[in-house]
Structures are given as C-alpha cells and as structure tokens.
Amino acid sequence: MRLFVAVRPPAPVLDHLDLALRVVQAHEALTADPADVRWTLEENRHVTAAFYGTLPDGRTDELVAALEDGVRAIPPFELRLRGAGVFAHRTLWVGVAGDLGSMRRLSAMAGAAGEEVGARPDDRVRSRPHLTVGRVGAPTPAGRGRRRRDRPTDDPAASLVRALAVYDGPEWTVEELLLVASAPGAGRGGGPLYTPVQAFALGA
Questions:
Q1: Separation between Cα atoms, residue 156 and residue 98, nearest integer Å
Q2: CATH superfamily of 2-140+155-201
Q3: Which of 62, 122, 163, 173 has its CA at 20 to 30 Å from residue 131's CA atom?
C-alpha cells in the first residue's frame, strides 16, 4: 500500500484558496503565452507531513500504532496558507505560515514512525511545508503571432508564482493528522486517488 500522512485544511480554507486560484487562472488564460497547468483537484489538496512510499499491508497496523503514540505529544496548533513558489520550474505550491515549529515536529514524528516500520520517509517533505496546487507543463501558444517560450531559461511558472506570492489565507487549527493511501492514476481525470485510512487527533 502506498501511504503518506498529511494535514488537510478545512473546507473554508480550501474554498478561499480555490477562489484565489480561479482569479489567477482567468488572468493567465488572457496572457499572450499562458502556461499549461494541470491543477490539483480541491479534494486532493493537503500539506504532506511524511511520505512513506509503498509499505507492506502487514506493517500498516504497526505504523498506525506508532502514529497514535506520536501525536499525543503534539497539541493542536495554528497554520495558514501564504505565499507561493515552484519546485524544479514545474511543481507549483502555496506556502504554509503560522506555527511552523509544531508542523516540523509533527513531520519529524511522522517520519520517525515510518522508520520504525521500515519505511524511509522523504526528508525533502519536512524541510518546507507546502500545499501543491498544480503541475506546470510546456506553455501553450494561445494564437497566431504570440510568442512561444523556446529558451531553457524561460520559466513558465514564473507569472503564476508572482500572482500567488501575495496570497494570504485564513488561519485554521490543525487538530488531526491523516494517514492516506495513494493510488496513482486511479482518481478523477487520471490523477491520483487519495483514500483516508485513519485520522489521529493531536494531543489526544
């Protein structure tokens, strides 16, 4: 089973972000050289705490037990979505602000729980909490005479990052950590299908 743990913002926070993304999408569509973006479905948006990869089914119960123990030591905390950036000129993300110390502790705990059962969490997940909102492909010319990016130095995500750099979403209280199963290509539009396995209440 392919597993990860994540913090999922509540519906009002995701709705606020979705409205901002719709404005950016509308503006981008009117530009001379729009980027080709595969936007993340709202139901798939989350802040990853640790990614475990494929874990044998027999080890899942052990992972659940380790996570149950770990979350007890981390009380609920406040986060908000703010700013934006891009990884490798392709993965567009919105940043996380607020009690980042607690978020990093949560990620470190989740990573250690995975290591206990033989998983090797991706350390890059812990370094910069973020929420992925899209994957940027090659730009699509919108019409005759419009410039196409040909140079390797051109960054098709740059205008999107600039537009979202000022984004500042509402604050919410992180009260639970979700263990999620991921099935690549099984979701809507050929995207991943994320199925919650178990929720862990922080500080419980």
A1: 29
A2: Cyclic phosphodiesterase (3.90.1140.10)
A3: 62
- Cβ partners under 8 Å of residue 135, min gap 6: 37, 38, 40, 90, 91, 92
Q: How many Å apart are CA 186 and CA 190, to the nearest integer? A: 6
Domain range list for the chain = 2-140+155-201
pLDDT in tens, the chain (204 residues): 899 999 999 999 999 999 999 999 888 777 766 778 899 999 999 999 999 999 888 899 999 999 999 999 999 999 999 999 999 888 999 999 999 999 999 999 999 999 998 887 666 555 689 999 999 875 545 444 444 444 334 567 888 999 999 999 999 999 999 999 999 888 888 888 999 999 999 997
Are 28 and 157 in contact by the 8 Å Cβ rule? The answer is: no
